[in-house]
């Protein structure tokens, strides 16, 4: 019996560069385990243009799950183009764990899966 359950909380599209730029699907949510479905952590899934799936998990941080997936995609010869990977992207006490954060000089909150723009690139 499989005890691990993935409960999607948000899905959408993001951009990766793997054999060219592609808009691909992603999903974020929580991981539950056990018969009574106890909280285990958070996850991020990204589906590539050829159907490949990358999965990142962390106990608390969606941002760390994003970095996990980005490393897997980089190992496959690609690059994620997400705002959350910008070295200037940071979370605050209130945004931590939500996937939202800020980039210095940009006045509003950004979602970590938003496409990295030239103004947010290092």
Description:
- The chain is mainly beta.
- It has a domain at 5-82.
- The protein contains one helix and eight strands; from the N terminus they run E-E-E-E-H-E-E-E-E.
- Strands 4-3-2-1-5 form a five-stranded antiparallel beta sheet. A three-stranded antiparallel beta sheet has the order 6-7-8, with no helix packed on it.
- It is globular.
Count of helical stretches: 1
Alpha-beta classification: mainly beta
DSSP summary, beta strand count:
8
Could you name the ranges where pLDDT drops below 50 across 5 or more consecutive residues?
none
Mean of residue pLDDT values: 92
Taken from the alpha-carbon principal axes, the silhouette is globular
State the separation between the terminal residues, measured CA to CA: 46 Å
* Gyration radius from CA atoms, angstroms: 15 Å
Order of helices and strands: EEEEHEEEE
Strand percentage: 35-45%
Main beta sheet strand tally, sense and closure: 5 strands, antiparallel
The spatial strand order of the largest sheet comes to 4-3-2-1-5
- Give the fraction of residues assigned to helices: 10-25%
Short descriptors:
122 residues; mainly beta; five-stranded antiparallel β-sheet; three-stranded antiparallel β-sheet; 43% strand
């Amino acid at each position: 019996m499989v005890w691990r359950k993935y409960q999607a909380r948000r899905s959408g599209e993001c951009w990766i560069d793997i054999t060219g730029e592609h808009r691909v699907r992603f999903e974020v949510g929580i991981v539950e385990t056990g018969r009574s479905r106890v909280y285990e952590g958070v996850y991020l899934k990204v589906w590539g243009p050829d159907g490949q799936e990358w999965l990142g998990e962390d106990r608390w941080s969606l941002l760390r799950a994003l970095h996990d997936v980005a490393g897997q995609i980089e190992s496959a010869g690609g690059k994620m183009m997400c705002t959350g990977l910008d070295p200037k992207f940071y979370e605050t006490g209130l945004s931590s764990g939500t996937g939202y954060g800020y980039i210095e000089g940009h006045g509003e909150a950004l979602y970590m899966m938003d496409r990295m723009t030239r103004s947010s690139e290092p």
